[in-house]
Structures are given as structure tokens and as C-alpha cells.
Amino acid sequence: VSDGIDMFQTMRSFFDTIANNPSLKSTILQSFVEPSIIIAILLLNAMVGVWQDLSARSSLEALERMQPRLATVLRSNGSNSDESGVGNGNINDKNSNGAV
User: Fold this and answer.
1) By C-alpha distance, which of 24, 2, 26 is closest to 10?
2) Which is more confident, 53 or 84?
3) How confident is the model at residue 74 (pLDDT cuts 50, 70, 90)?
4) How many angstroms separate the CA atoms of 30 and 28, rounded?
């Protein structure tokens, strides 16, 4: 029982020393506050990154839904309807009435 009381007295004197010494208290408090703020900023940054990624994916999916699947391409050898043959320099007919 005496060992427990001695340990309690030692801990109490240690905490009293910390509580009564403002510079030591601020040093200990600062050593916990600064890393906590850094961790909070990192977590917030990760959450914003995930939100932006999800927003970008939904925007891309909306753009893909807006794109026509089939295009009529006017070339020198005639026009054809193709899904993959559209390239740079081609004239694309996106209207259903044939107007370019």
C-alpha cells in the first residue's frame, strides 16, 4: 500500500509542477495542439479531394450521356454513319434533318 501512495504522491507532484509552471504548461499544450491542427487540416484536405473526385466523375458521366453515339461524317468519297470513324478534319452532321 505504501508503494501505491508513494507513486500517487510522485504523480501528484509532477502534475502540480506542470500546473504551476506556465511555460512548461504552454510547451506541453503546444506539443499537442499543433499536431492536432495539422492532422485536422490533412483530414479536411482528404475529404475535399474525395468530394472533388466524385463531382468530376459525375460531371464526366453527364457529358458522356449528352454525347451522340452515332455521327454522320461527310468525306470526299461520300457520307457514312460510324461510331468510331470520326476524326480531325471531318464534317460531322449532328442534326437529324441532314443540315450541317
Assistant:
1) 2
2) 53
3) low
4) 5
Rg of the chain, C-alpha, whole Å? 35
Query: Which H, E and C letters describe 20-53, residue by residue?
Result: HCHHHHHHHHHHHHHHHHHHHHHHHHHHHHHHHH
Amino acid 7 reads: M
Contact in structure between 93 and 80 (CB atoms under 8 Å):
no
- b/e sequence 62-76, b meaning 16+ C-beta within 10 Å: eeeeeeeeebbbeee
Q: Give yes or no for residue 4 having a pLDDT over 50.
A: yes
CA distance readout (Å), 16 to 31, 65, 75: 19, 68, 89
Between 73 and 54, the more confident residue is: 54
